[in-house]
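Weekly structure sync - notes
Attendees: PM, LS, DV (DV joined late)
Agenda: review two folding runs queued last week.

Item 1: First target. Sequence and structure tokens pasted below for the record.
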Amino acid sequence: MTTGADERDHGAATPPRRLGRVLGLRDLIFYGIVIIQPIAAVPVFGVADGLSHGHAVTAVLVAGMAMMLTAVSYGRMAAMYPLAGSAYNYVGRGLNPHLGFLAGWAMVLDYLVFPVVCVIQVALTVQRLMPAIPYALWVFAFVIVLTAINLRGIRTTARTNTMLLAFIFVVISIFLVAAVSYLLKKGGLPELFSARPFYNPSTFRVGAIATATSFAALTYLGFDGITTLAEDVKNPRRNVLLATVLVCAFTTFFSGLLVYLAQVIWPDYRTFPNIETAFMDVTQRVGGSGLFQTMGIAIMLASLGAGLSGEVAAARLLFAMGRDDVIPRKAFGYLSPNTNTPTFNVLLISALTLIGGLFLNLEHAGELLNFGAFLSFMGVNLASLNQYYFRGLPDVKRRLFRDALVPIMGFLICLGMWLSLPSLAEIVGGTWFCAGVIYQAIRTRGFRTQPALVIFPDP
């Protein structure tokens, strides 16, 4: 394993290839909204409503505030270290290179599973609209689409995401108009504006809200994908922090609005025909079968866009780790000379997405996603605490709330969510994490040598 000095000397002669800075703040915000999905609350609504005893909007809003704390830590670490790799780089440079590798290893699990979840969602949705075509064929088709677009480069991905986002917002706008019109006709303004979805004294239980909040956090998973594009962004010290926080704030408001309307339209969670597709029943109630079908298409496109963006993030995470030679550099650190795209990583992730889409179900895939995500979130919060409060910055006064309390609160909330995961996710995720510890121990001779880190000048 080379030392940091060796890496700098080598880099002076033949500097490692870097990703091109072609994305602006608007592209980054679009990317973040698409990877989270503007309608991310749709599949979460029914189960969250049941777990919270009719307080889904409260659970979504509380989860959103919790995720915004972690988003601040991600954004601040991205401003400090504007490199590809997200949690891998932030924990490695903000805490310790060995811990950085383990954060990256957990993040790999998260990012490898994320496209699988998206492909499963889109295949299930389209099969419901066109049941004559087998599920497996839809999985093959959508994996091919994701691969073809991502191999063309990040600019193509950004343009595709913008078009998908525009259509999804049109569908959501139609639903919002139909929902408001339905409520006004039913009971006027008192029916439209109600405090009952936020607090119903007859069913409000703190324990139920806490359980539902852990589940509702699924609405926000993927926001950290914004920081994996730190090397693709113009002015990353400003734009990554802004985009990360703004996307979380937008998702909190928009998801809360959708869930609030759904609760007012269908106030009794115990009467849903199918709680897992409850929002679709709400859509049919206000807009009939036409809006039901259109919302199905919107869910399909949202999942496709999220999978597209998730594959980009996963490919760039592997690229960052390969470039630093903590995983084989020749394969994972390769960039196509024509598109400046980590081609090998895209193809590998596509193959794993195909396998996962065919052999995993949505529940198990989602649980594995949570395991890696919350572990990475905890690491970044600790890295932000160490970097800004304990180490501090030259000539910058430490501030207790911003530099200490925000990351501490973010860490504790993520820890609680992580500990609440089902045992199957803990066993499979724990096995993956232990494999990472063993791999790192072998590569670093029992953690006696430091992992190599490529040093770049300030952008």
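Item 2: Second target, run right after the first with the same settings.
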Amino acid sequence: MTLAPKIFAAGDLRVGLTAEYEREIEESDVLGFAANSGDFNPLHVDPTFAQHSRYAQRIVHGAFQIGLASALIGMHLPGRDVLLGSVNARFLSPLYFPSRVRVSGEITAWNAASLAGSVRVTVSELASLMPVSEITMAFTLQAGKLEQPAGATQQSRPVEAAFSADRKVIILTGASGGIGAALLQALTEEFSVLALVHRHPLQQRPHHAVELQADISAPGWEQIITERLGGHPLYGIVHCAWAGMPKGGLLHCDPRLIEQQLAFGTSHVVRLARLLFSLVGSDGGRMVALGSSAGRHSPALGLGAYSLAKSALEDTLRLLAPEMARKKISINAVCPTFVSAGMNAQADDLQVKRERALVPMGRICETEDIVGAVRYLLSPAASFISGQSIVLSGAQL
């Protein structure tokens, strides 16, 4: 029996939407794939050869697993009207057979205006519950052929505002966070802002702000942003997004957590810088990242992974500065001390008083201090400042 693919309309898709299925992988499946693809590598088809390899037994083709991911987007999410654009695969551990796997996917980016998005697919071996591969697939929906799912009601969607021709465009990551929201409100007074959000949409969207759901930790978001800009030159990027502030030292920290934190201060920053470098106009541009005094200035032992990553962020910006300068782009970090907003929004009065007592100026850092520093670094007055970390310390050593 052939299953009918699901049908998702553009209005039904959003970042965070998930789907999954399970299936058995037998010897006949792997041998059939070898016959259809022509890939008879003995690691997959010859038990004697595989027995004397470092894997000790035959493993499933990596391309077979990509096929499992293709089945997820083609049959489950987004379903029938999807068109695959690109594939980025990472194989974490060998997948042996026979086995049963779970194939799960999550939309990590979606732009309703261009009908483009990406799905991150994880293939996990069920006996051990260990992920064996992570596959990101960029996709588009076939325009003009979208159907409303049975039983669903059509909802009107507001047309996204276009970028003003008389305003420079900047990208703001983490726009729905506490500090990000304050920056969004302030920056839209002067710029057109492409506000990137992940799981949480904007509570309020100011005039001259365009909201876009995207996960900067997944491949494929650069294409979606480029399409959304529609050829408009990019002036700057303000990077506020961060993967939380995990507590604890480094010795007993999950390595995956350290890698996640480091990515937000290194590889994600590099990808953002590459995007700005490729889209900036002839007059140059600006990039500002939100660091922390817990980085290089005053590392916090109780925030080991966070401090390490924030320190790496500052070094990443310093290394990028000479390269970005070729297109007259400055790149800097704003590193506040304790702020009772964003990740510290739940701090109680006692903690705020303790932090205030440490600051010679007699008050803690406020979001307005961060906004002021960012606006300065985006201004023409700061065109010769690059590769620097500005610590908002209130004279605290």
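Discussion on item 2: The two ends are 70 Å apart (CA to CA).
Action: LS to circulate a short write-up before next sync.
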